[in-house]
What we know:
- This protein is of the alpha/beta class.
- It has a domain at 4-219 and 311-318: 3-Layer(aba) Sandwich (Rossmann fold).
- Helices cover 30% and strands 17% of the residues.
- The strands form two sheets. An eight-stranded mixed beta sheet has the order 2-1-3-4-6-5-11-7, with helices on both faces.
- Helix 7 links the parallel strand 5 and strand 6 (204-209).
Amino acid sequence: MKxxxxxxxxxxxxLKKEDFVSDQTVKWCPGCGSxxxxxxVENAFPRIGYRKENFVIVxxxxxxxxxxxxxxxxxxxxxxGRAHAIATGVKLANPGLSVWVSTGDGDSLAIGGNHFxxxxxxxxxxxxxxxxNQIYGLTKGQFSPTTPRGTVTKTSPDGTIEDSFNVGQLxxxxxxTFFARVIDNMPQxxxxxxxxxxxxxxxxxxxxxxxxxxxxxxxYEHLTNKETRDDNILILTPDEPMIFGKNRDKGIAWxxxxxxVVELGKDASLQDILVHRPYExxxxxxxxxxxxxxxxxxxxVGVIRMVKKPTFDDLMVEQINRAKETSxxxxxxxxxxxxxxxxxx
Length: 345
């Protein structure tokens, strides 16, 4: 069966970033990472190549959910936690749309957690951008499901006592077929990841580690600081060895049933370094990559998992077509005369 995504119309003219820039005033705080995400989307959409009218952005509630106003496409500002359910309905009702969800760590992982895991489990052909600033920003600084244990916030003055979600683990646990992670100060990588997400058949989930300058500033400083970032980040490139470090002298190898950090020329040779293959359905390796965190490991960024599986959209169309071909009931009259009815007096 031809994937439904292939029914989205391509643009007859070459589009540019300016075609997707909205005339609305962008009301995010100066220095907020959301500005970089917006710019990355404006750069990615023309490259994806669909007609401007075939993009639609759905959001819930939160700073991230202002996104539909700031991109010159169709949009739907939904209610708290329900963006994924709305996006599912939009896509199934009109397969000719490229559907994007703009959401936050609170919107998707707290009140919207149920919808989040099920859109991923179903593998509906929608694209999710999750702004993860580890805090509730719009409601002024309460801890969220991704706030690390011990963090002092407005609602945890003595530090949180909860373990936080690992978004990648959650996505893979819900049988996700596409998961990527990017830091907000990597606009070029983010645009590339968004392009790959759009071309993926099924649910694509892109987690953006985003700085909130007001309520959680420098939460990712260990990943963005010039002095520490090279040793704390592993940029994943398909079919390339997992090498990182200031001097590109460290790598990820497999030893005694687990991933380990090795030093090239000392602990291992280049042949010992794992090669990243996101398109191979290696669930356990992809899960372990999602679990890797500093200081023991570098944080993997880029596309971690990108595998092919049937989409909910295609399976639904296939089931409807099969029912039409095999059913004896072709209209309401057939149904009323089928015998499987009862009368109400």
